[in-house]
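Let's practice the habit of predicting before peeking. Look at the sequence and jot down your guess about where helices and strands might fall. Then scroll down.
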Amino acid sequence: MQKEQFSRIGYVLAVAGSAVGLGAIWKFPYVVGENGGSAFVMLYILICCLVAIPVFLAELSIGKLSESDSVNAFRKLAFKNKKFWGYVGGLTMVTAAVIASYYLVIIGWVFKYLTLSFTSLPKNIESSKDYFLEFLTKDSLGQFVFFTLAFATCLLILSRGVKSGIEKISVWMMPALFLMLLFMLFYSCTMDGFIKAAQFLLVPDFSKITLASFFSALGLAFFTMSLGMAVIITYSASLSDDANLFRSTISVVGINILIAIIAGLVIFTFVFEFDAEPSQGVGLVFMSLPTLFANLGFTGNILAIMFFTALSFAALTSAISIIEPFVFFLIREFDISRAKSLAIVGGGIFALGILCIFANIEGVGDKYMVFGKDFFSFLDFTAEKILLPLGGIGGAIFAGYIIKKEALYTLFSPYMTDFMFDVWYILVRYVSPIFVLAIMINMLFFS
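Done guessing? Here is the structure:
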């Protein structure tokens, strides 16, 4: 089987696209808003350095050394208990597919609001809330149409393979995303709310930091870096041999943080411009922002189109990255075509996505509750609070204790000093697993 490889820039933009996704533009602003702003941003960046980067490099090493899918990567590199470690790799792959099923539903919501931006946005917060809730709980047909559009777009991109599909779309979408956000940032600079947004995000108030903030920053860093879901392992298996592994990692982390902060500045400028509340939770993008855009008239429609287009680009690059690991595994494990692999994986994701849509529909979702949660919430809870942390711990422990240190040193020494390697090795063996375990325990028992 001919091996497809990412170029250096293709790898960085594809992985950055995965990391940015809905995490940096949708989740980052509302989590920052709930946790008091700038001090939390600093805490998030610190956690990225202490936890996310070490785990990212651990997963990168697994993918690059094995040049295989997530299941066989663990099997190939383990010197004993190969079957067990294969299950760990399989867990990360299944986690990604589970997340993809409800992720595509949310992308459908983004597509819906993109079309709405061309016509009429709700002009006050109450009508905006009513509109979103009506769409979420009653419009099963509308959700199905937009979910199917998101699903078909992702499969079309994935059907083209690594070079012609994933890399090509990432190399085009990521710069476009950045330019649109940059334009919106420049426009935001002309508004009175920009100064308040900059102070909220960039001037720290450490009195806002609590133990809950610490765990929120830890979870956000983990989620926004696409860790524990086989993405980094799978993409790194197709990374060209001349790529600077450390520089590529820092580039991905830097792009992720930069786009998150730009998105935060843009969103909070509009929030403060209209004296709205920054700590609005998950409804910030789908309930509050459309109203704020509507108050700007025709200019607001243009900005809304740009914002939801940017969010669509970010979400799509992320979605294709979390579907690819399972597809990549089936192609290699069973020697089948990409089209057949996509049909198998896509069929499962599509079925779960439909169940997620109807989980929110009045009079339907309560018919198949799981452990007291609607099906959508159950998948989200299971993936974020159980499967992702387990996958992250598995990758860190595997790189820190199972892969031979000499092999890791040979891989990274061209790109790191001995001191940098030693620091990373200590972090990945001792600090990262404990921190990730702390996330899991906190979210399961104390949140």
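How did you do? DSSP finds 17 helices and no strands in the chain.
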